[in-house]
Amino acid sequence: MSNSESPARNIIGNGTIIKGEIESNGDIRIDGKVEGTLRSNGKIVLGQNGSIEGEMYCKQADLSGRVNGKLFVDELTSLKSTSRIEGELTTKQLFIEIGAIFTGKCEMGKAESPKTETKK
After folding, report:
1. Cα–Cα distance for residue pair 12/74, rounded to 1 Å
2. How far apart are CA 69 and CA 52, in angstroms?
3. Please, are residues 51 and 64 in contact by the beta-carbon 8 Å criterion?
4. Cβ 81 vs Cβ 63: under 8 Å
5. pLDDT tens digits, residue range 7-53?
6. Is residue 1 pLDDT above 60, yes or no?
7. Could you give the angle at the alpha carbon of 111 between the alpha carbons of 109 and 23, nearest 5°?
8. Is the pLDDT of residue 110 over 80?
9. What does pTM read for this prediction?
10. So where are the chain's domains?
11. How far is the CA of 84 from the CAs of 3, 23, 108, in angstroms?
12. CB atoms within 10 A of CB 33
């Protein structure tokens, strides 16, 4: 494998439940359920049937499912029309589609890059 290859893309499929801590240098797509801490140096995509309970740290987030917890996003967070977010969100930029539900606290304009670093 060469060092110039793009980071892996990871998929947590519908019907899959993961409890614990997940760390990735690449993008993650979640169509199942994650309970715990999720860290990615890339983008996290939460499908319409996906859910996250816990903490999430990433560069970008594209959310269509349910989140209950704390989210720390370095760049852009997109809440799609089917998203249901409850908790605390810290992000540099926020885009909310009509129909999305966000209940909680939002802090914008701060990058949280030290928290997205995965262990080596």
Report:
1. 22
2. 8
3. no
4. no
5. 568 899 999 999 999 999 999 999 999 999 999 999 999 999 999 99
6. no
7. 140
8. no
9. 0.85
10. 10-111
11. 38, 23, 19
12. 19
